[in-house]
Amino acid sequence: MATKRTIEKSQPKLIPWIGNLSQAPWWAIIILLLGVLIVYFIVTAPAYQDAFLFLIAGLELTVSVTIISFSLALILGLIAGLGRVSKNVVFYTIATLYVEVIRGIPMLILIIYFAYVVTPLILTLLHWVGDTTLQSVTSGFLAQWAASLADINIQDVDLKIRAIVGLAFGYGAYEAEVFRAGIESITRGQMEAARSLGMSYFKAMRYVILPQAVRRVLPPLGNDFISMLKDSSLISILAVRDLTHLGKLNRARTFRTFETWNTVAFLYLCMTLLLSIGVRTLERRMSSDK
After folding, report:
1. How many of the other CB atoms lie within 10 Å of CB of 63?
2. DSSP H/E element including 24
3. Residue (of 140, 147, 163, 131) closest to 234 by Cα position
4. Where are the alpha helices (DSSP H) in 14-45?
5. What is the DSSP letter of 104?
6. What is the pLDDT of residues 262-286, one digit of tens each?
7. DSSP secondary-structure letter at 137?
8. CA 203 to chain centroid
9. CA-to-CA distance for 38 and 52, rounded, in angstroms?
10. Predicted structure pTM score
11. CA 111 to CA 234: how far, in whole Å?
């Protein structure tokens, strides 16, 4: 017995292409049209051209900060992720403490904290080490090294570096959970089989578990990279001349609020959409390989 849905499908439509319209990705079409409109304004409108040219330097800095911060976050995340699955109590406790504390603090607070609290504390420690060394050593390379430590000033540490460290430590905790989930998704029998072949725990993790885990966590890592690209706008609080901060400066110097923030939003959207397409392509390829 034919259902209502099959009867509707079998009946000819008055306008044949109306069904195809309902299946079209309208959200993508709308974004594309808005992007074409902004590009048209950038090409033809002087206010948009001026904003675009002014923001290019900030775009480059945003990309570089994101790449460097995410690379450091991957290293921290891998180490902490290994600690989260470790049977060593000390290693597990330190990794878990790092993950739970960092994930419980907003990213903006982390960036400010590392810039204005952690950095002065580290410099104070370096000054103490330098002064202590100079009291016992008066000549030679060690004395020169100690003097250089004692002479480091807070102004010598670029705010861009502080922002990178804050972002890296913040996202390292999230990447740790991604790596932990990837490692735990590998069946325990593979580790047992590797150990039975004479491999140590570290060799089995390096040559058997991690290659499979990294392959599985690539899509989540790609999504986190996109999130970091957007969260990199938070470093503007440190007056780092990224895309967002240059947007503030351009609005202040031209009083063109509408054109400035339209261009800033368009540039961020272009980057995130391109990265999203790359992540989806990677996910489809990985699902087809299974």
Report:
1. 15
2. none
3. 163
4. 18-22, 26-44
5. T
6. 999 999 999 999 999 888 888 888 7
7. -
8. 29
9. 11
10. 0.85
11. 8
